[in-house]
């Protein structure tokens, strides 16, 4: 294989590593760092990466030739484990003499890795919602109501994401589902606090990753992605609020 | 005393729940729970001293940020793994809900009060994280030798 092809393969591999990180919710400066570090570790002198939350642009110079790759990222889901795995991988790749083929195989394994089973995620989202209700002064009865509505909410949102519904609509429907379930519980005649159930059960929708990334990106001088992630967080928050508000009106 | 212990247990478990929801690595679940619990402890104590939820959220976020950066350095994981679940208990979900409730009941003055408090809490969480991550950058620059 010529040296030229080798460089091409390396660049494709670095791009794949960046793609996995970005589509699982990494900060853009971390993606840039990783790509540049991977390329520089194999004696490429000029590497420039420009990452936004929706795409990666990468330019590499080798022997007066410039290779440019553009990768568009469409879906963003949140899987912090994969970011940690690619982080470990890039450290290993830079520090050792790993071949590009082996690296590509490792990355494919990371991309297809499954962190938690579906029912475990549902169970823990119930736990998160339930204990949040307790944290804000709900009773133990409210805990169970919140547990059930939190788990159902995540189930519904997972289903909606599979249908490729836009995130605004899925958050709006999510807020509306939580509120309807809480209204049903409070209409059942037992002593439920509707407010506390809604506050707890709504939490799995809160855009924690978007907020954190918006702040951390802006702090690293990535204002473009800072602003776009900030807007994402604001839109999600208002979608949840609309969903809750619309449904409360019926009550 | 019992109140605080109970609150800390609740904060620990809900942080863990969010950790799984955000798919953090298996061996970081308990650690992120600790980050969230300490943030909540500081939040509660500051509220007791100052009676201001905004100040509480600010110092809570600083705690989460600093401990998250330390854990990230020690356990060699991206810092978001610890910060994202850690700040969730501080996020003003309740404020958001009560604001919406006030709007639907046409209590607009209450809505403005609650809404501005919610916004300020969000801003104070943001500035808490900003401060702790800038502090960690200063530390990083001094610690690493220039290449």
UniProtKB/TrEMBL annotation, chain A:
Compartments annotated for it: namely:
Cell membrane
Q: Which GO terms describe its molecular function?
A: transmembrane transporter activity
- Could you confirm whether the keyword Transmembrane appears in this record? yes
Asked whether the keyword Transmembrane is assigned, the reply is: yes
Example GO biological process: succinate transport
Chain ranges passing through the membrane? 119-137, 143-160, 167-185, 197-215, 227-248
> Which keywords does UniProt give here?
Cell membrane, Membrane, Transmembrane, Transmembrane helix
Q: Quote the PANTHER family the UniProt record gives.
A: SUCCINATE TRANSPORTER SUBUNIT YJJP-RELATED, UPF0442 PROTEIN YJJB-RELATED
What is the name attached to this protein's record? Threonine/serine exporter-like N-terminal domain-containing protein
Q: Which organism is it from?
A: Thermohalobacter berrensis
